[in-house]
Amino acid sequence: MIDFTLNEEQKALQALAREFANKEMKPNAAKYDKGDEWPEEIMKKAFDAGFTTLEIPEEYNGGGLSHLDTAIVSEELSWGCAGMFTTIMASSLAFTPIILFGSHEQKKKFLTPFTEKLSFAAFCLTEREAGSDAGGLQTKAIREGDEYVINGSKCFITNGGVASLYVVFALTDPSKGARGMSAFIVPRDTPGISIGKEEDKMGHRASNTTEVYFEDVRIPAENLLAKEGLGFVIAMKTLDQTRASVGAAGVGVARAAMEYTIEYTKTRRQFGKPIALMQNTSFEIADMAIKVNAARHLVYHAAWLLDNDLPCGKESAMAKTYGSDAAMEVSLEALQLHGGYGYMKDYPVEKLVRDAKLLQIYEGTNQIQRLVISREVIGPIK
Ligand code: COS
Known about the structure:
Elements: H1 8-33, H2 40-48, H3 67-80, H4 82-101, H5 104-110, H6 112-116, E1 120-124, E2 140-144, E3 147-158, E4 163-171, E5 181-187, E6 193-198, E7 209-220, H7 231-267, E8 269-270, E9 273-274, H8 279-307, H9 313-337, H10 339-343, H11 349-359, H12 366-378
Parallel strand pairs: 1-4
Antiparallel strand pairs: 2-3, 3-7, 4-5, 6-7, 8-9
Helix pairs in contact: 1-3, 3-4, 3-7, 3-8, 4-7, 7-8, 7-9, 7-11, 8-9, 9-11, 9-12
The structure holds coenzyme a persulfide.
């Protein structure tokens, strides 16, 4: 049977996340959007509230929340500030391969510290020449005795400069291409790691994005996740899970844009009446509400599949695509309905447009999502 009601615990969780977003994130969003400062103070509070370790299993001292619960929180936090939320989500992206494929010892050793003190993780897959074509990476991890030696570089790494732990994808058998890829847990303080330039981004300016270099980085062989050659599947299965969260972030951004628009158009008077009374405005707001609701349902459905251990690659890609497209469309329309004011930084809407754009790009562009969806929907062609 289908039940669309949140239970009492979920309602309480939603209220808690909404209050946090409203009190701590929204009032500081414009300040950190300038990009001069990293929102450490807000992140400390997010850590105290448990928002930075929601999905780490209880056994390792984390929140142990379900995917649906996490989606509910994600919508609220990105409604508060998508940039700050990205910092939290990027850690979660790096925790996921450890949760899915790590041994008990690896989880205990590498996940538990995140629940004890504020710290961040980063997922190191993308390279200059391996973006959408994730299987085309060049970073190598060559086994020498009881160690692997990693050489290569990663780019566009969220939390790159602030992370204490990286999950790094590298070729252990370069002759096999993507099938020779493996995944490693790499502590930041390992000699040979250096941080490259910090990117000056259009949006999500409250998040840290850098290059990360690995030069003769030696890690114990026990830091290999699962086994050699499974790296590509680990990356894909991770993204199958986390893409629904990007959809949830899209819902949060779209909802914020819709709410600002309702507030503004009810008070903005032109031709002798509030512009919300004009049919173009009210119909546009109706379309915004349709998109927010439809996107949320796709996100909840993908999360439900994940919680029930059912295949979700297509649905997670749908949630990511529709959620981020909704954020883009709704925020652009919100800007238009704000007229000249919408274009000014004094109003919060132009930031939402800039933030929405990245949701269509990271964790796999929406074109890659359509590739994933169409391959499954169309099936093999003879
Ligand atoms: N789960 C499990 N296995 C998967 C999988 C999934 N979701 N997707 C692919 N695989 C497996 C395939 O079954 C195949 O296995 P075999 O080698 O045994 O045949 C292997 O992985 C290669 O898959 P495929 O042929 O589909 O790879 P492609 O290179 O054609 O395409 C895409 C893979 C484009 C989907 C992938 O590279 C991708 O997602 N790119 C975007 C990367 C991304 O999101 N980057 C953002 C980084 S984080 S901000």
